[in-house]
Design a protein that fits this description.
mainly alpha, elongated
């Protein structure tokens, strides 16, 4: 896809987030006040179909975005009843362990899928790796990326470095050379008295 890190965040993650949001709202509306088990296989079929669509090399950006939105839509169908089951079915003492096990299995499966894809595809298909990672772990990525960017901006500010925003901060990771155009551009940020020059008649 030849996207920068900022474009991946803006296009791919936004597409999957919109799809999951709309799909979750639709699943909640269709479920009413009960857990609708029929949405689980429907969501699984949709994710399988559009996952296979996204896995095909050579997709244009528009096709990938549409595929991610539709994948997220069916993921919402799948997530809502599964999350409701995890929250309501286990006993109160076991609920934490069940939720932790679910998150662990999701993370391991996501990592394995990316590693398998990395073995099957050549390095130039980096976009396909990223697409699978975004599809497999949309919620952690959506939550983690803004937090990481804000934390990086705050860390820079605490060291006296002002960064314009998230995109310049991400672009800074690719800098390998810095040119300073004039003397005095860089300062330590701590004024120090070096000399005292008295006018005539003063000591």
């Amino acid at each position: 896809l030849q996207l920068s890190e900022g474009q991946i965040t803006a296009y791919l993650m936004s597409a999957i987030a919109i799809g999951i949001g709309v799909g979750s709202l639709a699943a909640g509306y269709l479920s009413g006040n009960k857990i609708e088990y029929g949405l689980i296989p429907l969501g699984s079929l949709g994710m399988t179909a559009f996952g296979a669509f996204l896995a095909q090399p050579g997709r244009e950006l528009t096709g990938v975005i549409v595929g991610l939105v539709l994948y997220g839509f069916f993921a919402g169908f799948f997530i809502v009843p599964i999350a409701a089951l995890i929250q309501h079915r286990p006993d109160g003492k076991e609920k934490g362990a069940v939720i932790a096990a679910s998150n662990l299995l999701s993370g391991v499966a996501s990592l394995l899928s990316v590693l398998v894809l990395a073995r099957l595809l050549p390095p130039e298909h980096y976009g396909e790796y990223v697409t699978v990672l975004v599809v497999a772990t949309p919620c952690p990525l959506i939550l983690a990326a803004p937090v990481a960017i804000v934390a990086g901006l705050s860390r820079c500010a605490s060291r006296g470095i002002i960064v314009k925003g998230g995109a310049p901060l991400e672009a800074a990771s690719r800098i390998d050379s810095v040119l300073i155009d004039k003397t005095g551009t860089l300062t330590a940020g701590k004024p120090v008295l070096t000399d005292v020059i008295a006018l005539p008649g003063f000591e």
